Amino acid sequence: MTSDFTEAEKRGFYKAIYSRRDVRSHFTSKPIEDDILSKILHAAHHAPSVGFSQPWNFILIKNIETKKKIKESFDKEKSRSSQLIEDPKKSKYLSFKLEGILESPVNLCVTYDPTKFGPFVIGRSSIPEAGLYSVCCAIQNLWLSARTEGIGLGWVSILSNQILKESLELPDHVIPVAYLCLGYVDDFAEKPDLESAGWLPRLDLKDVVYFEKWNDKENKNWKSIQNMIKENMDYA
């Protein structure tokens, strides 16, 4: 565990990051092998967590009736959210394929349990949300692991959490954080779907990095990396 990564291993790591996609379509009928699914879940479970609290749980879903209930919630929420925007953007939004609930062989709900290991968790007393952040770290681990195994993953965020809680019989204190669709796909797109569709552009790294203080992009103590960032180097 203490040995350095080889150059090949480093390239594989960055390939997983840069080629990861939020998959909504093109799922195949090929089932996910149990050993592969187990590896992905193990990767998620080895994410960092505040105070080593491991506040996540993973609910695996194949039941078609459960999937249909979740899909109905998606359809209602997508219609409701479309009322927040005007045409022509509204029509474009409604045309997007934004989930693969029924098409993907496995659905997975990742939850947050703030009561795990008791009320006091090291590091959570000042920032209570750190528990939720920990669950997001687990999801990212899961996402990258799935990509390295050639499995597509899509995060469905257009859902009612109340419907999720009812459908999955979650205790009142447990919070659903992510509803994910997993499955093998025909291909991974070159770019994220919403970028390709022109919904929003990808920001350059120089647009989101500051030095020492908010909005300081020209701090003289950081000239070398500023030039690298402005070149928008891509390590994919």
What would your notes on this structure say?
This protein has helices at residues 7-19, 34-45, 64-82, 89-95, 130-148, 161-167, 193-196, 223-230; strands at 56-61, 106-112, 151-156, 175-184. The chain has 236 residues and is of the alpha+beta class. The chain folds into two domains: 10-187, 3-Layer(aba) Sandwich (NADH Oxidase), CATH 3.40.109; 202-236, no CATH class. The protein has a four-stranded antiparallel beta sheet with strand order 1-2-4-3, with helices on both faces. The model has no long low-confidence stretch (mean pLDDT 95). This is Cob(II)yrinic acid a,c-diamide reductase. Keywords: Flavoprotein, FMN, NAD, NADP, Nucleotide-binding, Oxidoreductase. It comes from Candidatus Nitrosopumilus salarius BD31.
Quick gist of this model?
This is Cob(II)yrinic acid a,c-diamide reductase. This protein has 236 residues and is of the alpha+beta class.
